[in-house]
User: Fold this.
Amino acid sequence: MKATIYHNPSCGTSRNVLALIRHAGIEPVIVDYLTDTPSKARLAELISKAGLTVREAIRQKGTPYADLGLDDAELTDDQLIDAMLTHPILINRPFVETDLGVRLARPSEAVLAILPVVASPFVKEDGEVVIDGRAKRPVP
Assistant:
């Protein structure tokens, strides 16, 4: 199975998602979206395929969201995407695309819906069990 992760190595959620993908036996294409920002068309496609609105795909915490006035309800999706491309830190993370679909993997367990089932245990960086030894996983 192919996989691509739009990754921020400074983000714990993104690191956990990358580890989950690798735990499933997949070495993904890793796109550091902060330095290798997707095109406008590609970003819009990821958001759409993930079943999100553009507003749902914008990261507010730790970003210039408020300073840029992006909470203005009058802004169009096109304007919001332009802001995300100008300031890639506004792109919520991590987006993951596999043969089974696209997810914004927040929480990290959301990626399990588009990965093959793996029976071996997986524990996040913080010690939270995501997959127990009986292949039980949370429902994303």
In short: The chain is about 25% helix and 15% strand. The longest helix spans residues 12-23. The CA atoms of residues 59 and 92 lie 5 Å apart.
